[in-house]
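Renewal narrative, Specific Aim 1. Our central claim is that a sequence can be written position by position from structural information alone. The example that follows is taken directly from our test logs and has not been curated for this report. It begins with the structure tokens describing the chain, in the order in which they were read.
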């Protein structure tokens, strides 16, 4: 293990941050004016989370293609945020755009109440990648999780969902639990108006802790373990060797379904971690990138789970029983999914993206080693993320504790002011099929310069 123990001078950091904030404000007058004029938007933004953008206001996009974004002030950025995975295809990839225009303009019909031929093609392709044989569609990963949770309860007759502390699976009530210092399941700090106390619906354990998982499952009331195979929403927390196999065994032993959400971890390869590491989910969740930005999502089941669901003859799966939405599986999102899976997110594209993410990770490690800065970086296929602690955290709570708002803002603004976009409120960088070595090297150079400035005081 290399020595990384340089202490950063916080007052020096504050003055660097102040400099970057001033530059950001001065360089982006049009974005600032649009933000200040947004009188009819709740919080001044289309979605409240956009207020978490560093520098006090978000950049407004003008246009985007591949991994280049141009903002309304005319700045061009290398985009490593890629819509927090929703644009892992790169922005507006040609093959998806062609299929989308064909559906909208030539064929016509974006949403009807009829299936289109694309649905079976997409179902078969999802099976080829992720293994499970039977699929249903949604317009977001959040919806996929919500509906699959409901069906997991139906299938097992059990009431609780088990999640890992500081996981994220979209705005799904059952998942907003964390462990407190005494090991109790409590609501995540700031969770908005939970409908019932979280411990009525949820059991929480730490990731990478099989004995704790077994203890929670022994209560016998868990319908499904819902997890990403590596946590990606609290930095990247990779599974320790044998952990996921152990989880699979425990799920089977205690009659809980294993529900794997690969909305982000699909970055591991064209079949996600499920194919790469031969995971065996009972239920599979996907969303974001599979429609190249057209709202799309899917959830898949094994035959065994479908048989359990179908054994409940009284469940209203066809109408208002609580599963499904009018826009789910619409013709436009299926056309987008077919082209995106068939022609954009190919095995070859993943090879390229993963090679670049390795290059990116190596450059970050070199700079950290050179200056002895105690941060770590974790790579998961085409994505990599650094965290302000060393070595890399092994569970969600320790990763959360390594959060550092000032450092976070400094690194984001430093990059942004020099034409590189990192994922807002992550230090995550994702590669897409059009990302180049030169662009990765540009980040590597800037990262080195930022670290050199930080350690000087
Ligand atoms: C693992 C995971 N699942 C589900 C979601 C929800 O996705 P969406 O907000 O597109 O519904 C997210 C969002 O970040 C996610 O990271």
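The sequence written for that structure reads:
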């Amino acid at each position: 293990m290399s020595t990384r123990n340089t202490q950063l001078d916080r007052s020096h950091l504050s003055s660097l941050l102040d400099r970057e904030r001033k530059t950001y404000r001065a360089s982006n007058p049009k974005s600032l004016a649009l933000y200040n004029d947004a009188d009819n938007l709740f919080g001044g933004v289309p979605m409240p989370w956009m207020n978490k953008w560093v520098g006090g206001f978000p950049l407004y996009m003008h246009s985007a293609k591949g991994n280049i974004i141009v903002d309304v002030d005319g700045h061009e950025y290398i985009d490593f945020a890629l819509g927090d995975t929703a644009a892992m295809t790169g922005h507006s990839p040609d093959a998806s755009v062609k299929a989308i225009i064909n559906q909208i303009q030539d064929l016509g019909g974006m949403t009807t109440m009829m299936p289109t031929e694309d649905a079976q093609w997409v179902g078969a392709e999802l099976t080829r990648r992720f293994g499970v044989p039977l699929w249903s569609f949604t317009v977001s990963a959040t919806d996929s999780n919500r509906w699959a949770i409901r069906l997991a309860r139906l299938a097992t007759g059990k009431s609780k969902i088990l999640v890992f502390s500081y996981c994220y699976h979209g705005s799904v009530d059952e998942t907003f639990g964390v462990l407190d210092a005494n090991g109790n399941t409590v609501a995540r700090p700031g969770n908005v108006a939970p409908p019932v106390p979280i411990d009525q619906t949820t059991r929480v354990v730490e990731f990478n802790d099989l004995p704790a998982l077994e203890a929670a499952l022994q209560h016998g009331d868990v319908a499904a373990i819902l997890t990403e195979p590596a946590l990606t929403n609290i930095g990247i927390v990779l599974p320790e060797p044998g952990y996921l196999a152990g989880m699979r065994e425990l799920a089977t032993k205690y009659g809980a379904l294993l529900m794997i959400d690969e909305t982000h971890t699909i970055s591991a390869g064209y079949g996600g971690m499920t194919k790469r590491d031969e995971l065996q989910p009972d239920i599979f969740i996907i969303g974001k990138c599979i429609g190249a930005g057209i709202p799309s999502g899917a959830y898949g089941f094994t035959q065994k789970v479908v048989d359990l669901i179908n054994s409940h003859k009284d469940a209203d799966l066809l109408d208002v029983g609580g599963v499904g939405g009018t826009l789910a599986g619409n013709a436009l999102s299926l056309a987008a999914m077919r082209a995106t899976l068939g022609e954009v997110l190919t095995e070859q594209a993943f090879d390229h993206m993963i090679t670049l993410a390795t290059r990116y990770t190596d450059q970050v490690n070199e700079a950290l080693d050179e200056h002895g800065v105690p941060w770590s970086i974790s790579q998961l296929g085409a994505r990599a993320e650094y965290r302000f602690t060393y070595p890399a955290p092994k569970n969600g709570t320790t990763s959360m504790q390594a959060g550092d708002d000032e450092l976070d803002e400094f690194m984001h603004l430093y990059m942004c002011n020099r034409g590189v976009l990192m994922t807002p409120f992550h230090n995550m960088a994702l590669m897409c099929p059009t990302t180049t070595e030169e662009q990765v090297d540009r980040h590597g150079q800037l990262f080195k310069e930022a670290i050199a400035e930080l350690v000087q005081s």
